[in-house]
Design a protein that fits this description.
The complex is a heterodimer of chains A (about 110) and B (about 240). Chain A has helices at about 5-30, 40-45, 45-60, 70-90, 90-110. By secondary structure, chain A is an all-alpha fold. In chain B, about 75% of the residues lie in helices and about 0% in strands. Chain B contains twelve helices and no strands. Classes of the chains: A mainly alpha (about 110), B mainly alpha (about 240). Chains A and B meet through helix 1, helix 2, helix 3, helix 4 and helix 5 of A and helix 2, helix 3, helix 4, helix 5 and helix 6 of B.
Chain lengths: ~110, ~240
């Protein structure tokens, strides 16, 4: 990103701001009482779980920090973050235990 | 039985929103740190949090920008992460749709996971509440949340550059997203969608411009919706 010009960063910030606002405003502001078709709602329910895991999966399996080689410490940390997050239903608990596993792994294996 | 005015609803909202300070402060700082690490200026990191005010989408945009992905793809992917806001908008409209145009615009700007989650739960419980009480509660909830997000981002951006490499901050973002997704895996349909997202994004990782992620996300959404439908039908058949 270091070679990304400043105007491009501001374009991203502005575009994301406007786009996010329009999605938040969509029904509340314009459409009012009319409901979306069930089929559309059914797909919208899965946007977060459909995008976020795919976004980070390559960084988990092929981290830049190791030149793309799978790293046991990072793989274990990812598994711990998912497992603890799933069991506790608490994001911070998942993140902190994942981070603890990462540091323990880097220290033991590194 | 006490009557709830707009003011008491507002105070109840502040009380319920207060604990989120302890979630927003570390995440806001983390965004500030990650943004500055990725090469953003402090003012750009802060502008992200004030203008976009959506953690997951902000993290997504910064992660993709760091990989030199084209701007159009960054915008589309980060907006896809934010599509759930349209669902929040749908769910809140029956409760808050009667407010004035400018108030609705302000409520839309402040529509985040926390304000949606607390308000939609409260509005279902408090069936006697009218528009005034609901508006008071909504703005009360967001009062501790949004300023914490802005200030924590600023703080994180200011200290960010001084964080040593040994802290392995490259992995902070994956850990945050994985933990967020894990807490959202409520049904088999969620798990199926997440699994498809991972498998396809790895399988199509060779595609340029993060197109692999777009393909993975689209197919994962369809799979989630299909599994949900299939589960409903099976439930119906069992009864």
């Amino acid at each position: 990103m270091n070679n990304m010009p400043s105007w491009e960063i501001w374009l991203i910030i502005g575009g994301l701001g406007v786009g996010s606002f329009l999605m938040r405003y969509s029904f509340l502001g314009v459409i009012g009482e009319r409901a979306l078709p069930d089929g559309v709602m059914r797909h919208l329910r899965y946007t977060a779980v459909a995008v976020l895991p795919g976004l980070v999966a390559p960084a988990v399996l092929w981290p830049d920090a190791t030149g793309g080689e799978p790293d046991p410490a990072r793989l274990i940390a990812a598994a711990v973050a998912v497992g603890i997050g799933y069991i506790t239903r608490n994001v911070l608990a998942g993140v902190t235990s994942g981070a603890a596993a990462l540091y323990a792994g880097l220290w033991l294996l590194g | 039985m006490t009557t709830t005015t707009r003011k008491t609803a507002f105070i109840a909202g502040i009380r319920d929103g207060f604990p989120f300070i302890f979630l927003m402060a570390p995440f806001g700082m983390l965004f500030g740190v990650v943004a500055v690490e990725a090469g953003l200026k402090v003012i750009e990191a802060l502008a992200f949090s004030v203008i976009v005010i959506a953690g997951a989408a902000q993290f997504t945009a910064v992660a993709l920008a760091e990989d030199d992905v084209p701007t159009v793809v960054i915008l589309l992917t980060a907006l896809a992460v934010n599509l759930r806001m349209a669902m929040y908008s749908v769910a809140l409209t029956p409760h808050l749709g009667g407010a004035g145009q400018w108030t609705r615009a302000l409520m839309a700007y402040l529509m985040v996971d926390q304000s949606f989650a607390l308000s939609s739960l409260k509005f279902e419980q408090e069936t006697s509440w009218g528009l005034q009480q609901k508006m008071g509660y909504y703005f009360g909830v967001i009062l501790p949340v949004a300023p914490t997000w802005y200030l924590a981002t600023l703080a994180g951006a200011l200290v960010g550059a001084q964080i040593p490499e040994a802290l392995a901050l490259d992995f902070a973002l994956p850990l945050v997203f994985l933990a967020m997704v894990a807490t959202a895996l409520r049904t088999l349909a969620h798990i199926a969608a997440a699994a498809v997202s991972i498998i396809l994004s790895l399988a199509f990782a060779f595609l340029p411009f993060s197109l692999g992620l777009l393909v993975a996300a689209l197919v994962a959404m369809i799979v989630g919706a299909r599994v949900e439908q299939w589960q409903h039908r099976r439930q119906g058949a069992a009864e």
